Amino acid sequence: MDEAAVGLSTVRIRTRISAYVYGNILVLTAIATCTPHMVETGFAALAVAATTVTTYIAHVFAHFVAEQVGHGAGEHESDQDELRDALPIISSGSVPTLIFLIPPLFDTEGTALWTLLAAGVVLLRLASMGALVAHLNGELPSARAHWWGIGVAFVGLVIVVLKVWIAH
């Protein structure tokens, strides 16, 4: 991995990608559970924003707890590093939250369209992982990398369907 290109260690990059994928899957789950009434009234935006923020807090807290295990030389991470490494979770929910603010603020029709748009943004973010991983490995994005990204989005969608089916 070309660490110099991004200025981060491989561990930091992997941590951020993990938070990105995890955040997108949980935001997509929140989107999938939004009803038309929630979209019309703005509660969909609140649900996605709340899911985003609480996932970020839970992620940072879990990492803080894990950091209590003994440290070897040079292993200690700063709290600021963890706060930054978890920011992809926040980015996962920002655009869908803004999309869900449009119907109640501008009294628009077509709640299904807004839900599909919000979900599409998240699926596109997951599908972009193929190109990003190729880039971080110093490769040009190939057809294989793009298909791998589509596979990531598909697996994320399957996880969301299972989560909604089992838990909701």
Automatic annotation (TrEMBL):
Transmembrane region(s): 19-39, 45-66, 112-133, 145-166
Q: Which UniProt keywords apply?
A: Membrane, Transmembrane, Transmembrane helix
Q: Which domain of life is it from?
A: Bacteria
Per its record, how is this protein called by name?
MAPEG family protein
| Organism expressing this protein natively | Nocardioides caricicola
